[in-house]
Amino acid sequence: MSTETPGIDPLLALRAPRDPACDVFLTGTVFLDIVFTGLDSAPVRGTESWARGMGSSPGGVANMATALARLGLRTSLAAAFGDDHYGEYCWDALEQGEGIDLSMSHTVPGWHSPVTVSMAYEGERTMVSHGHEAPAPTGAPAAAGAPEPARPAHGAPPASEPAAPGPAFPRCPPRARAAIASLAPGRAEPWVATAARDGALIFADVGWDETGRWDLDALPDLAHCEAFLPNAEEAMRYTRTDCPRAAAHALAERVPLAVVTLGAEGAYAVDGRTGAAAAVPAIEVEALDPTGAGDVFVAGFVTGTLADWPLADRLAFAGLTAALSVQEFGGSLSAPGWAEVAAWWQRIRTCAGQDPAALERYAFLDDLLPTTARAWPLRRAVPTIGFRQ
């Protein structure tokens, strides 16, 4: 991915001296992702398969944190890190490579990092993960160069990643414009209510309901949410509807913003305050690896919401960033920044046969891309462990 174009601060015109230092706060489990690419098929039992490519990067909640940071949002992550080389690499890649604030994170002595091995083929992926519950910190120092947090840090990982339990998250998250949560039936995270009370807009996704109840009342933190972003199947099950758009309207009676992702058909959103709705088709791309695409979509939508863009522009931008991510391998490695957005916009306008109406949908990018605010990125993760820069 390109690292040469200066970055953009999408909130530059909105920033004021008394604003929170943090734009977005999130918490969860950081995995070390090892992704094998270039496989012709799934591995066959009893045989050895050779991949034509491989990449390593921070995964789990790091996918979302990286996507947010690469879009110019000041991102704070609370997570536990192992004190092995994997944990050191993930910490360095996120803090030094992506500029993510890890002051709420901590290193756990004697605990090894959770690991996911992902095999990508035919636009799909197969994953194998391993990890143990992280014990609560006992006052041991954090990773080199990082301030020692006063409280443990953990929450639920995004639904797109395997769960790995850990110590309870602090009840006092940093003051932020927004926070991202992952809802689960029957579970309330005290930090969500605290963040909302302190003025943060809560954006939430949800995983598959293993209980089979699909009861919105079983999601207590939904009451604190500004936006709820389930996929079509989840939305229809929770609302007892047979149409994703009907599900979005039903959800908008419970949250200010209901966003239903429709896969290859794009996304549909309803503003519960005004009743306005927006639909944006998906961008047709050759999908190489869908890892982290849902996280990138949420990051794009959060960016547009905090920047106060029209609802349709937020959906279009979220879909664009997700489409750019699936054309590359890896979760956080594939998260696009403004360099990738600018390159796509420049290329698509020069391609013959483009639908003028479709191009007009993304014309709002013209007002964004010329602006530069700071050097971007600082240093991104390299696709392997051990190289020294």
How many helices does DSSP assign? 9
Radius of gyration over all CA atoms, rounded: 20 Å
Helix proportion range: 10-25%
**CA-to-CA gap between the ends?**
17 Å
Question: Please, could you describe this protein's structure?
Answer:
The chain is an alpha/beta fold. The chain is built from nine helices and 14 strands. The strands form three sheets. An eight-stranded mixed sheet has the order 4-1-9-10-11-12-13-14, with helices on both faces. It has a four-stranded mixed sheet with strand order 3-2-7-8. Strands 5-6 form a two-stranded parallel sheet. 49% of the residues are buried. Mean pLDDT is 85; it is low at 1-5, 139-168 and 372-378.
Chain-wise SSE layout:
Layout: E1 22-27, E2 30-37, E3 53-60, H1 61-70, E4 75-78, E5 80-82, H2 85-97, E6 106-108, E7 115-121, E8 124-130, E9 176-183, H3 190-197, E10 201-206, E11 225-228, H4 232-239, H5 244-251, E12 257-261, E13 267-271, E14 277-280, H6 293-306, H7 311-326, H8 338-350, H9 356-361
Parallel strand pairs: 1-4, 1-9, 2-7, 5-6, 9-10, 10-11, 11-12
Antiparallel strand pairs: 2-3, 7-8, 12-13, 13-14
Helix pairs in contact: 1-6, 4-5, 6-7
